[in-house]
Amino acid sequence: MPFKVRAKLVAFLGDEEKYPCHFAYKLGDEIIWDGEKFTGRICPYLLPELSTKVFWLFAAGPRYKEIGYYFPFWYASISLKDPDRKKYDGIGFKPVLKSQEPYPGVPLGAFQWPPVNERLFKDVTVVCPDIRTSALFKLEAFDLADKGDSTTYFRRQMMILDRVLKKQGIDVDKIIDEFTEEERYEIYPPLSQMLIKVLVEELELLNYLQVKDGKAYVTDRGEAKLKTFKESLSEEERQALKLT
After folding, report:
1. What is the pLDDT of residues 202-238, one digit of tens each?
2. Residue 133's closest CA among 50, 218, 13?
3. pLDDT at residue 183, rounded to an integer
4. Each residue of 131-160: pLDDT tens digit?
5. How many whole angstroms separate alpha carbon 90 and alpha carbon 30?
């Protein structure tokens, strides 16, 4: 189930000395979403865009990409109008084979010639709307959400880690067989092959689990995560979930 999200202040793109941040943000400040609440100070002018992107990352995790990632024009050169070239490109532009000079709002690495070697917009970011200061926050899904309505799915994922750890190399489609009928259908959410596939994919994204040739293996990171989870439970909960 969805992911915890961190927003970290990584840079001021404007002149923070001349136009200081009136929310008194400092480099390294963080805002965390855990599935039910934010931890950290949130400037109200960041809130609309921040909450939207946090929600997208909450759902998609590391799979989410900014929309700009998909556009090809970042890797083209700058151009001049040239109607005589319409017969070639359909509109009429002349390529200018030199790099774009720095310009407000143009991403670093865009319109360079020769082009950069990697795609842009790999980072998910939010920028303060005050362009004089332009505090830049980098967002990332860094763990499984384990609060709010994510709790039940998170517990299922921990149970999956436990069963796989006890039988490393198990076929993914056989994981469901490691649960009794009662464990499959009397605990919410009830297990199905489709749900297990979705939960395993999220465990893979965070390197808690690896799947090779259809077989699942718990990583060292996953084993440590499971250990921490077990330690957070009461004895009654450990017995109920068979996580002893």
Report:
1. 999 999 999 999 999 999 999 999 999 999 999 999 9
2. 13
3. 96
4. 999 999 999 999 999 999 999 999 999 999
5. 48
CA dihedral 216, 222, 228, 234 (to 10 degrees): -10
- 141 neighbors 58 (Cβ within 8 angstroms): yes
Cis peptide before 2 (omega within 30 of 0): no
Under-70 pLDDT residues of the chain: 1, 104-105
Give the start-to-end residue ranges of the domains of the chain.
3-66+123-144, 69-122, 148-241
Rounded to the nearest angstrom, the gap between the alpha carbon of residue 224 and the centroid of all alpha carbons in its chain is 21
Percent of the chain with pLDDT over 70: 99
163 closest CA partner among 146, 174, 175: 175
Among residues 14, 40, 4, 5, the alpha carbon closest in space to that of 135 is found at: 14
Name which of 27, 28, 10, 14 is nearest 105 in CA terms: 14
Using DSSP, state whether 32 is helix, strand or coil: strand
Please give the distance of CA 1 from its chain centroid, rounded to a whole number.
Answer: 13
Query: Per the structure block, which two tokens stand in for 66?
Result: 């900014």
Using the 8-state DSSP alphabet, how is residue 67 labeled?
G
What's the CATH architecture for 148-241?
Orthogonal Bundle (1.10)
Query: How far apart are the C-alpha atoms of 240 and 106, rounded to whole Å?
Result: 55
Distances (CA, A) of 242 to 73, 184, 196, 236: 54, 13, 18, 10
Among 120, 97, 125, 98, smallest CA distance to 108 is for 120
